[in-house]
TrEMBL record:
Family listed: Belongs to the Tdpoz family.
Transmembrane intervals: none
Organism: Rhynchospora pubera
Domain BTB: 76-145
InterPro entries with a match to the protein in the record: BACK_BPM_SPOP, BPM1-6, BTB/POZ_dom, SKP1/BTB/POZ_sf
Protein name: BTB/POZ and MATH domain-containing protein 2
Length: 256
């Protein structure tokens, strides 16, 4: 029996390989060979091997660089004025991430020649908490907890901003969060957004919640519900169809 002992990784964290020709010449017998592996669990005090890909190339840290660029605010070349406050950013980063910003900042629009752009169609809290700018630079959202503003409200306004600036990834993220946060306090306002932005899954989920008889009994008498149904009569028809589908005889609808 021919045996050898070899660690799978060298001192630099690069994987070790045996050439096939060496394996066949020295260890293959009757077309077979036996491979025995042992695993050693190292103590926490052991110096960690550098993290590398199988190829030996260091993992990309471009995300860290963009986070640093966003936080340091160096070399910024455009500012936004929102409710009297100024927020700075980089034109090239905004244009690369958003087709709307690209048109505004590098197209023929007036904003392309302005150093400070007034934002009037986005709620101030979206820029004050900076979740939209944070996402543009990092593809992630910061901690958006606020003692005065419920997270769902911030998410709703952020969804509007994402749709306004063509940030599809952010729009999808907000959509997913709202899908998981439908309640008596948010169902109507979230349904309104879903209808305006044509988010079918979110709209269906809100309608299912509202059409629960006990929920409908309480929501249907609110001004918010009445105003929404007046604005979008098609929603009222959908709710009526859903209620009729739940009961064979809608005239005997019982609210439990």
């Amino acid at each position: 029996m021919w045996t050898f002992s070899k660690n799978c990784w060298d001192e630099n964290g690069i994987p070790w390989y045996m050439e096939r020709s060496e394996l066949e010449a020295n260890f293959l017998r009757d077309g077979c060979f036996t491979l025995v592996c042992s695993v050693t669990i190292l103590s926490e005090s052991y110096k960690e091997v550098p993290k590398r890909f199988v190829s030996g190339i260091m993992p990309s840290n471009i995300d860290d660089h963009f986070v640093d660029l966003f936080e340091r605010k160096e070399t910024t070349d455009v500012s936004f004025e929102v409710d009297g406050e100024i927020f700075t950013a980089h034109r090239s980063v905004l244009a690369a991430r958003s087709p709307v910003f690209n048109a505004e900042l590098f197209g023929s629009m007036t904003e392309s020649k302005m150093e400070t752009i007034a934002i009037k169609d986005i709620k101030p809290l979206i820029f004050k908490a900076m979740p939209m700018l944070h996402f543009i630079y990092t593809d992630s959202l910061p901690d958006m907890s606020d003692e005065n503003i419920p997270l769902v409200i911030i998410t709703q306004h952020l969804l509007v901003a994402a749709d306004r600036y063509g940030l599809d990834g952010l729009k999808s993220l907000c959509d997913d969060r709202l899908l998981r946060d439908i309640s008596m306090d948010t169902a109507i306002s979230t349904l309104a957004l879903a209808e305006e932005l044509d988010l079918e899954e979110l709209k269906d989920r809100c309608l299912c919640f509202i059409c629960e008889p006990k929920n409908l009994l309480l929501l249907s008498v609110t001004d918010e519900y009445v105003q929404l149904m007046q604005r979008y009569p098609s929603l009222l028809k959908k709710i009526g169809d859903d209620i009729r589908a739940q009961f064979q005889n809608p005239n005997q609808l019982a609210i439990s």
